[in-house]
Design a protein that fits this description.
This protein is an alpha+beta fold and 169 residues long. It has a single domain, classed as PH-domain like (Roll). The chain has a 7-stranded antiparallel beta sheet. β2 and β3 form a beta hairpin. α2 crosses α4. It is globular and about 40 Å long.
């Protein structure tokens, strides 16, 4: 974490486990700066999924990848859930966030259950599939920079998790 981020966290006394509403402004500044670096555009910055990130992320988590778009999720029960939201890859977990008025969905996916990710690009559209043991998530986006950085973040984390498992055996 950069020195200025540490100063902001100290100034607003951001706790390690739970963020208070009055602390969210400092955390929001750090998060917005990070997702801009990852390729989010001005439209993405206005979405409700972006505004809720300070309350969903733990203060010690860092965003490694983020992608916005339409998704379809295979539920364990066999049904398909369709919506518009964002996938966030952090240092500890992957989040699927879908916010609407009077509706909020936050799914947390551990890197231990992720088996891989694939992406394909056709003209301006990038289709991604996150393969997990609890059901796959397909997402369609129009932001190639976010998509490529998200895929890279997932591949790095899944590969490092697999390497750790092999050295433990």
């Amino acid at each position: 974490m950069a020195d200025n981020e540490q100063d902001i966290i100290k100034k607003f006394k951001i706790s390690k486990h739970h963020i208070q509403p009055w602390q969210a402004k400092a955390q929001e500044h750090i998060i917005r700066k990070r997702i801009k670096e990852l390729g989010a555009n001005s439209y993405n910055m206005m979405l409700p999924e972006t505004r809720v990130l300070p309350f969903v992320l733990h203060p010690e988590e860092k965003i490694n990848g983020i992608v916005y778009g339409r998704y379809s999720q295979d539920a364990i029960s066999g049904e398909k859930i369709i919506g518009r939201g964002t996938l966030v890859a952090t240092t500890k977990r992957v989040l699927l966030i879908d916010r609407k008025p009077l509706f909020s969905k936050n799914n947390e996916i551990s890197y231990g259950v992720i088996s891989g990710i694939s992406s394909s690009e056709v003209a301006l559209v990038i289709n991604m599939t996150l393969y997990t043991r609890v059901g796959n998530i397909n997402l369609r986006t129009y932001n190639p920079k976010c998509a490529h950085k998200f895929v890279e973040a997932i591949e790095d984390k899944v590969f490092s998790t697999e390497q750790r498992k092999q050295t433990d055996d």
